[in-house]
Amino acid sequence: MDKKHFISIYGPWAIIAGATEGIGEAFAQNLAGIGFNLVLIARREALLKEEAQKLQDKYGICVRTINFDLSETEKLPGIDKMTADLDIGLFVYNAALSLVGPFMDNSEEDHLKEIDVNIKGPLVLTMLFGERFIKRERGGIILMSSLTSSQGSPLVANYGATKAWNLILAEGLWYEMKEQGVDIMACAAGATNTPGYRQSLPGVNLRAMDPGSVAKTALANLGRKPVVIPGIFNNISGFILRRLLPIKTAVGIMGFALKKMYGKKEN
């Protein structure tokens, strides 16, 4: 990546939703290393301030923090006012809520909250920053998707459906907005070694990717393609599940894998 060229297109400020750990933190580290100033959005204020201080001390950049619960979607337009004085050219939506377990075991309220964070959040903020980027005639948007978006995914059915929405939105907007100077891409990550991933599993998945590799791959491919799948194994798996297998077979494979992953026994 040509860092000077990258920051000339997407800089000097980037904003990351869901920035205090895992892939979001990795995006922050990568972008700070390139020289971006950052706006970090997260709901855990102590972690948010700690991350901001580390980035400022290590990279000498400017960091602004926004303590915000992204499930409170009615308040999302306020982020525009909070950043109106900044020349933001890159928006990364990494925040996500993932409910694990049988669909009917989770409440309607929790499923709707998952939709708020995973769909309404990126929708509202993509419109907000997309409008700003069109006016400045350059910019980039990365929406985090998942390999669960390739087919129905038992035990994370609603989560997978929300990630499919992000992938399809990014594909459509990639075509719509590229002539206006705005690059949009979905990053369909597979298993990634984040705190949330480790907490959800009883054991260790040796194929889980490093968050830094996921973020680096996404940034390197922005402006080149509408969807990127980090990791060779994930690329092969995604191609087979999304393109080659009958949907019944793909869903069955995913169901078997997820039951095994989350300690459920196949009947």
Give an account of the 3D structure.
The chain has 267 residues and is α/β, with parallel strands linked by helices. It has one domain: NAD(P)-binding Rossmann-like Domain (Rossmann fold, 3-Layer(aba) Sandwich). The chain is built from ten helices and seven strands. A seven-stranded parallel β-sheet has the order 3-2-1-4-5-6-7, with helices on both faces. Helix 3 links the parallel strand 2 (37-42) and strand 3. Helix 2 (22-34) crosses helix 8 (211-221) and helix 5 (108-136) runs parallel beside helix 6.
Structural class: alpha/beta
Please bin the fraction of helical residues: 40-55%
List how many beta strands DSSP finds: 7
Distance between the termini: 48 Å
Order of helices and strands: HEHEHEHEHEHEHHEHH
Q: What is the name of the CATH architecture?
A: 3-Layer(aba) Sandwich
The CATH topology assignment is Rossmann fold
Give the CATH level 1 class. Answer: Alpha Beta
Give the biggest beta sheet. 7 strands, parallel
